[in-house]
Every structure is written in structure tokens, then in C-alpha cells.
Design goal:
This protein has 243 residues and is an alpha+beta fold. It is built from nine helices and five strands; from the N terminus they run ααββααβαββαααα. The protein is globular.
């Protein structure tokens, strides 16, 4: 993928002029997606953000096909955006037809005419609050130049989100992200307990919590809080009340 440094610099300069006082944050997210779509000369772009149960949700997409592919990842909890979000790393696939990491997502994506994808997590305080992704209809090796360009757009999204969260303007999206960040701590605690108790990986611990939440039709945060509270109570000396 060949990307003009001049074009990227110009796009970032224009996007950097966004001010929440003049533009709602939701509109700013859509502007980032549309500019990313244009500069990368790709066939789709999207931005997803975390909810209170640390699940990704659509925030802005370039078109309906991209919305469907993101919803597919949300429904099956697999795909490049899910992986990038949980592993907090840039994730790329140059040909989904030959990639076996996400069997359900890959098969449907190819059926919808999407072959390549590049996803970058949106950082916030050493955590991830979302993902920016681009897709191509053709097999596409993602170059180091292209990866750095996407990281630049991702950092801009992170800056806009940080400005929103630290500002006085409390939008519905800001409340959602604040809740997601607050819930992350208890979910991570619960994952740590399962990892230590059962010797499983972080991903396996998360999937176990998610499966229990789904089976009991309860929120992932509530399941995690129960596990943490029960563990603390069990480890306390007799006659001691939990804090």
C-alpha cells in the first residue's frame, strides 16, 4: 500500500482542527473514519468503542458493509478488531481467505468481498478503549508505512477521546466510555483470579467469564464483581468482614 506522506500530513492537520465546541464528538469520530477511508484508498473503514462490559460496539463506519462486518465480530466475539482490542496490538491480515485465526469472521468477510484488514487499538491510560480498522476488497500486504499511517490516525482518535473524557462536556458517549474504563478494573481482577486458580490464559479466563454471563443472562461486570467478592470473602480470616 502506497500512501503519500504529504496526504497523511494534510489529513492529520485538517483533522487536528476538530474542536468539540464546534463539532459533537460523534461527528468527529465519523470525520476520522471518512478521512481514514479516503487517505488509505481502501474499501471500508470503521471505529469501534468499548461498552461497560468491555465489548466493542460500532461508533462510526464508512458504509453499511463495514457496519455488517463489525457487527459480525461483535456477535461472534472473534475477528481482527476483537483481537487488536484485547491484545492491545496492531493486527493485520493480508488475505482472509488463507487466514485461520478467525474462521467464522474470515469466511463471511470473504463472502462479502473483503480480503484484507488492518486494525489498531485506541489507547487510553495504558488500556484500550476501542479500535480503528481499514479493509480492502483485494489481497493486500500491509507495509510498515501503511501501519504507521494507521497508528497516526488511531493516536488522533485517542487524543479526541481523551479530550472528551477530561472535559466538562458530558455526552452519552463519554458516559459510556467512563463506565467501560471503570468496569475494566473488576473484569481484569476476575480474569486474574481465574488465571491463578485454574492456570488458564487471559483470553481463556475472559471467555469463561463471558460464557457464564451469557448462560446466566447477566452483565459481565456483575459476574466479575461476584467472583472478586467471593474470593476476597473466602481469603479473609474468620470473623473478618470484607471491605
Amino acid at each position: 500500500m502506497s500512501i503519500s506522506v504529504h496526504d497523511v500530513r494534510h489529513a492529520l492537520t485538517e483533522l487536528g482542527k476538530l474542536r468539540f465546541g464546534e463539532m459533537r464528538v460523534e461527528e468527529a469520530m465519523h470525520q476520522i473514519v471518512q478521512t481514514t477511508h479516503t487517505i488509505f484508498a481502501v474499501d471500508g473503514a470503521g471505529l469501534m468503542l468499548a461498552d461497560i462490559d468491555h465489548h466493542l460496539r460500532n461508533a462510526a463506519v464508512s458504509d453499511d458493509r463495514m457496519r455488517h462486518l463489525e457487527e459480525l465480530q461483535i456477535r461472534h466475539q472473534e475477528g481482527p478488531c476483537i483481537t487488536a482490542f484485547h491484545d492491545k496490538e496492531l493486527v493485520g491480515a493480508e488475505d482472509l481467505a488463507d487466514d485461520r485465526r478467525w474462521p467464522v469472521f474470515g469466511e463471511v468477510a470473504v463472502r462479502y468481498g473483503m480480503r484484507a484488514v488492518l486494525a489498531s487499538p485506541i489507547p487510553y491510560n495504558q488500556d484500550a478503549v476501542g479500535v480503528v480498522a481499514v479493509v480492502s476488497e483485494q489481497r493486500r500486504p500491509w507495509t510498515a508505512e501503511g501501519e504507521l499511517a494507521l497508528l497516526a490516525f488511531t493516536d488522533l482518535a485517542a487524543l479526541l477521546i481523551a479530550t472528551m473524557l477530561q472535559g466538562e462536556q458530558q455526552t452519552e458517549l463519554a458516559a459510556q466510555l467512563q463506565a467501560a474504563l471503570s468496569s475494566r478494573a473488576v473484569i481484569e481482577q476476575a480474569k486474574g483470579i481465574l488465571m491463578a486458580r485454574e492456570g488458564v490464559s487471559a483470553r481463556a479466563a475472559y471467555e469463561q467469564l463471558r460464557a457464564q454471563a451469557r448462560a446466566q443472562r447477566r452483565k459481565l461486570t456483575a459476574i466479575s464483581a461476584d467472583l472478586v467478592r467471593d474470593t476476597v470473602r473466602h481469603d479473609l480470616p474468620p470473623g473478618t468482614s470484607p471491605p
